[in-house]
## 1
Amino acid sequence: FWIPPVQGSKSDPNRAARQTALLDRLQSIPGMRNAAAINVLPLDGQNNFPCQRENHPEQSIGGMEIRIVTPGYFEAVSMPVVRGRRFDSTDSALATPTVIINEALARVWWNGDGNPIGDRIALGVFKGQRYIDEKTREVVGIVADSKTLRITETARPTIFIPVAQAGWYSGGMS
């Protein structure tokens, strides 16, 4: 189902808390295994921004797929974390900005054999040009690939951002 855009300003400190409370209520429904949300469901569209590996302007993607998720999303959709960790309550608005990347991005920017954990990604930067004012984000995990736009296409490089650290996002969640 669809969680409509949360009312209130983008900088509203209670915004994430209200989303969490709603998910907690859903989780309490008898028989409910998991409750989580994402801004764009797999196979349901695009949401992209330019991104660059910090200090590597040659490693830029003009339309990087960006997904904003709640803690528990990867468990809810059975998407394994293959290295590092999942998002949790420590990934708050006041914490170090974090991202989890998919294996497709790890192959593209770290040649599949490097270790991106601890490396940094600049959202809104393309070939050294900054388009939005956003802090760089630390890579804390790698998840298995999943389909993005079409079932017949290979997975696109994707970055996952914890909803608590996406105060600029004002859209709904599924």
## 2
Amino acid sequence: MPPLSLAALTILDAGPAGQIRACAQAGWTSVGLRLNPLLDTDQRVVGVPEKEREIETLMRETGMALLEIGVFAIKLALDVAALEPVIAFSARLGARCLVCPVEDDDLSRRAATFAALCDLAAKYHLDALAEFNPYSGCRDLASAVALVAVVGKPNAGLVIDALHLSRSGGHPADLRKVDPALLRLVHFTDATPFTPGEKSIDALRRESRTARLLPGEGALWLKELLAALPAHCAISVEAPSAKYAHLSATERAKIALEKTRDFMRAIRA
């Protein structure tokens, strides 16, 4: 099984530098960072020389591996060329992949945008991974698989988020019908039981951003999910939780690692 990584969303409020420090102090060996801002509250690093130097120094001094970089949303009028500085910086840090949620409902336009992003990522030896979720333009696994197939780029793949798979009506068994080479990253998280249609779009979005559960705390089929994934699929724990929001980023990172390790030991036993 690949090493565990902690996704930026789990301790997003700490910012990229704080996330690296928290992960190192908590015992993680790999981290994901949000270097392409999505929200107004996201810290800007690329283009700010002192912040770039801080991140580079922290990565070097902690020895932390860098798995994923977010968030490269595929949306209307996305200026792909303008993303080159953040992609180049991510590659310099040793990142492996870009997380690309799909927000454009237009099938042909989003395919063209994603293809251009794949080409730019390939220039820096990075994968570009499409992510579906039930409140986006790409609402389920089948739609994401179709997008990657249409684009046909060797560095294009999929992010499988356990919460999004559940809330879109999917199941780990569905992954067995997908080319294993496309399954390159899983966002590992738990959740309460779910009945399709019981939550509004806004409620699904809030749950995703603030009310996830750590592995083993909920009712998702995580053991089956791991069994359905190929050995090369990277595992990133993405579980921002209101339950632990009052704690420091380091404390949250420690709990996330402990809970995930406990869960992994339990399923192996």
